[in-house]
Design brief:
Blueprint: E1 7-11, E2 14-22, E3 27-32, E4 50-53, H1 57-66, E5 70-77, E6 83-88, E7 94-99, H2 101-116
Parallel strand pairs: 4-7
Antiparallel strand pairs: 1-2, 2-3, 5-6, 6-7
Length: 117
């Protein structure tokens, strides 16, 4: 993702929980080790899939795989310019990657509105 985590527990050498601030609005992305999951949690990947906009899904997919993630869903070109893929991180979480033209349109509109005000 190109950014260092701003919060790690218990420490950077033994991260059980890592949190990043990402994007134009500094959204938080927290990744937690599966060993902290509730005892009744399913063993396989699951839960909500959070998709993060990236400028190049193929490059981002290769980068996260090189960092230890396993491909969950390959790169798929969808309608209206959307492109998606997803991976399972080393802790068992699913992370989605998406090129989202709608996000870019909304971001441009927000920036234009901010300049006018």
């Amino acid at each position: 993702m190109g950014v260092e985590p701003y919060f790690e527990r218990p420490d950077s050498e033994n991260p059980g929980y890592v949190e990043f601030r990402l994007g134009d609005y500094q959204h938080e992305l927290g990744i937690i080790d599966r060993k902290y999951a509730p005892k009744d949690a399913l063993r396989g990947p699951g839960g909500a899939v959070v998709f993060w906009h990236v400028d190049d899904v193929s490059s981002a997919l290769e980068k996260v795989k090189a960092m230890g993630a396993r491909e969950y869903e390959p790169r798929i070109e969808r309608e209206a310019g959307f492109v998606t893929a997803s991976v399972i991180d080393p802790f068992g979480n699913i992370l989605g990657l998406m090129y989202n033209p709608h996000y870019l349109d909304m971001l441009a509109e927000h920036r234009n509105h901010a300049v006018i005000m």
